[in-house]
Write a structure and sequence with these properties.
- The protein is an alpha/beta fold.
- The chain has three domains: 84 residues, Winged helix-like DNA-binding domain superfamily/Winged helix DNA-binding domain (Arc Repressor Mutant, subunit A, Orthogonal Bundle); 97 residues, D-Maltodextrin-Binding Protein, domain 2, CATH 3.40.190.10; 98 residues, D-Maltodextrin-Binding Protein, domain 2 (3-Layer(aba) Sandwich).
- Helices cover 40% and strands 22% of the residues.
- The strands form three sheets. Strands 3, 4, 5, 6, 7, 10, 11 and 12 form an eight-stranded mixed beta sheet that branches. A two-stranded antiparallel ribbon has the order 1-2.
- The protein is elongated and about 80 Å long.
- Keywords: DNA-binding, Transcription, Transcription regulation.
- This is LysR family transcriptional regulator.
- It comes from Gordonia paraffinivorans NBRC 108238.
- Belongs to the LysR transcriptional regulatory family.
């Protein structure tokens, strides 16, 4: 379905249900030429002929019948998602409990929570701090939180993971500390730069492997507290590795080095199996909107 707009799917189903362009156009309040063009656009994007136009009444081709089944599933999924979000909008009060750890406590959590609150001002968010991915899963398992934000590469066992997007990571350092390095720097060149990072999480350690020497001697401070890390960078104690969005806001005066090859960390929303609460569905929609993804959830059991 890549490249197919939702309104084209809606138009296609209307033509099928009304048996032709004329009545479908009337029901959609658009002109017949516009609807005909929309159907041709849909066929061009799919690379198939959906209707047999030989007779007076449009008949579905074999490809059209297959697409009809898929189109109705898509519209049903979107309708269910909208109903979930509408249900949340009608709540006078409610809360979603979210758990994460330092790697995601600023990016993406701050922007997702901000967007969630803009869309659902009657609902609150409680954010819990965890000690890495294992702590996130432990909080979900215990029922302390409903949604976890964590590294996509981390093992999540029987939990449901919803891929969202990824962070671009850069090196931020006081200018004197990296004055001999270019703006775009090979990863292995960072092995000679003192670092302050949270090196306790195995997934983060694996991600940063190219930046750390064989005995981790250039990790001069192992710290999981973002504010302390930023202060150490500002004072020239060491460089750090963090999302570009965080570097631009929290360490604007530092130098930001792009890594070659680029270093990216994908992240997921993780939930226990079962039906999420309406507030959780709304939070998922906000996270997907933050990432520029269609807000209809991917999990078909919702």
């Amino acid at each position: 379905m890549t490249g197919v707009d939702l309104h084209l799917v809606t138009y296609f189903v209307a033509v099928v249900d009304h048996g032709g362009i004329t009545k479908a156009a009337q029901s959609l309040y658009i002109s017949q030429p516009s609807l005909s063009q929309a159907i041709r656009t849909l066929e061009k994007r799919l690379g198939v002929t959906l209707f047999d136009r030989a007779g007076r009444r449009l008949e579905l081709t074999e490809a059209g019948r297959r697409f009809d089944d898929a189109a109705r599933r898509i519209l049903a999924d979107v309708d269910r998602a909208k109903q979930k979000v509408d249900a949340v909008r009608e709540l006078k009060a409610g809360r979603v409990d979210v758990v994460t750890y330092s790697a995601f406590s600023i990016d993406p959590l701050v922007d997702v929570v901000r967007l969630f609150r803009e869309r659902f001002p009657r609902l609150a968010v409680r954010v819990l701090a965890a000690d890495g991915p294992a702590g996130v899963l432990s909080a979900l398992r215990a029922g302390d939180a409903e949604i976890g934000v964590m590294d996509s590469s981390a093992e999540h066992a029987t939990f449901t993971a919803i891929p969202i997007t990824e962070q671009e990571l850069v090196v931020a350092a006081a200018r004197d500390l990296v004055r001999d390095l270019p703006d775009t720097v090979p990863r292995n060149a960072i092995r000679s730069v003192p670092l302050v990072i949270d090196h306790s999480d195995q997934n983060t350690a694996a991600l940063f492997a190219d930046l750390v020497d064989d005995e981790a001697r250039n990790v001069v401070v192992d710290c999981a507290m973002p504010a302390a890390v930023w202060s150490l960078v500002e004072h020239g104690t060491a460089a750090t590795v963090l999302p570009r969005t965080v570097a631009s806001t929290q360490l604007a005066g530092a130098r930001h080095l792009t890594l070659d090859p680029p270093l990216r960390r994908p992240w997921d929303l993780v939930l226990r199996s079962g039906l999420p609460s309406p507030a959780a569905v709304a939070f998922i929609a906000a996270a997907r909107a933050h990432a520029g993804i269609d807000s209809a959830p991917e999990h078909r059991d919702w």
